[in-house]
Amino acid sequence: MKLLKILAATTAVAVLLATPAFAQTRIALVVKSLGNGFFDAANKGAQEAAKELGVEVIYTGPTAATAEAQIEVINSLIAQQVDAIAISANDPDALVPALQKAMERGIKVVSWDSGVAEAGRQVHLNPSDVGLIGETIIKLAADYLPDGGDVAILSAASTATNQNAWIEAAKAAIPAKFPKINLVSVVYGDDDSVKSTDEAKGLIASYPDLKAIIAPTTVGVVAAAQVVTDQNLIGKINVTGLALPSEFKQFIDNGASQAVALWNPIDLGYSAVYLANDLIKGEEAKPGAKLSIGRVGEVTLDDTNSAAMAAPFEFNKSNIDEFSKIY
């Protein structure tokens, strides 16, 4: 009996020595691909939230914006036993089995920016209201086309949840609110600069009366504006969509674009980390639940456990210089 007590005490001491006195909460911020300015800005906000909450944020993602590459990242994070995964998805459905595996292991899952199907996450944070974004990207073109005309959309991946939802909302807004606008084509640049450049060139070659290219992707909008600049089409084709002010200022300055819009990606990364931490602390993800997103405020979950952060903000010649110094 005495020997058993000694062994038990020895084992208890060993466990205490092997276990940190304080195991810091770890939240993984998983992006579509690394090297993207939008996601780098989101990480700034995520790290700000981490300091406020006293948690560790692991910023990670694949080098290529594919579902297969993200699944590898997810499996690695499961092996690391992180407390939560906050992910901007390259595909809404393909990631579900890997994320279900994560949730089965007790890992909380939040999707943000580009969503995951409901079965693969607990909460989704839209950067803004889908309908409002769709209307905004058409309005950005229509505002500078008083007589209307042909426009085209240069999107990211054809499977990107957020892009597809915005495009459908944009199409729905045209007949009622922008009847002079004629959407001639939707093409996909896969958030790759080279492919987006080629797609923009293809649109210009295929539609000689094209008046605007709308790119609801920070990679695509820069690529399209550069093509318009290089082909001396400034004043003939207006490039607009969703852009980071710091990356896009040169094209507002040179006239390739009249205006673009975006939510604050810093706030988006910040809010995603707060939502993940809410779940870790035991907040229940259910329709009607109100969850904190720190200094950004509070969101209320809808019937799909989704919420919208804020409305898009327009950047033009009057304010692009100011905001380009921020993000």
SSE inventory with pairings:
Layout lengths: L1 H17 L7 E5 L6 H17 L2 E5 L6 H14 L3 E4 L8 H9 L3 E5 L10 E4 L3 H13 L6 E7 L5 H17 L3 E8 L4 H14 L3 E6 L2 H13 L7 E4 L3 H9 L5 E4 L2 H16 L9 E3 L5 E3 L5 E3 L4 E4 L3 H5 L3
Parallel strand pairs: 1-2, 1-3, 3-4, 4-5, 5-13, 6-7, 6-8, 8-9
Antiparallel strand pairs: 10-14, 11-12
Structural class: alpha/beta
Q: Report the count of strand segments.
A: 14
Per CATH, what is the topology of the largest domain? Rossmann fold
Strand % is: 15-25%
- Give the strand order, joined by hyphens, for the main sheet: 2-1-3-4-5-13
Helix content: 40-55%
The shape, in one word, is elongated
Distance between the termini: 67 Å
Overall pLDDT level? 93
Which regions have little confidence, pLDDT < 50, spanning 5+ residues?
1-21
User: From the alpha-carbon coordinates, what is the Rg to the nearest angstrom?
Assistant: 22 Å
GO molecular function: carbohydrate binding
Domain Periplasmic binding protein: 27-284
Family: Belongs to the bacterial solute-binding protein 2 family.
Pfam family, one: Peripla_BP_4
How does this structure look, described?
Residues 1-23 form the signal peptide. This is ABC transporter substrate-binding protein. It comes from Devosia epidermidihirudinis. The chain is of the alpha/beta class. The chain folds into two domains: 25-127 and 265-310, Rossmann fold, CATH 3.40.50; 130-262, Rossmann fold. The chain contains eleven helices and 14 strands. The chain has helices at residues 2-18, 37-53, 67-80, 96-104, 130-142, 161-177, 193-206, 218-230, 245-253, 265-280, 320-324; strands spanning 26-30, 56-60, 84-87, 108-112, 123-126, 149-155, 181-188, 210-215, 238-241, 259-262, 290-292, 298-300, 306-308, 313-316. The protein has a six-stranded parallel β-sheet with strand order 2-1-3-4-5-13, with helices on both faces. A four-stranded parallel β-sheet has the order 7-6-8-9, sandwiched between helices. The chain has a two-stranded antiparallel sheet with strand order 10-14. The longest helix has 17 residues, at 2-18. The chain is elongated.
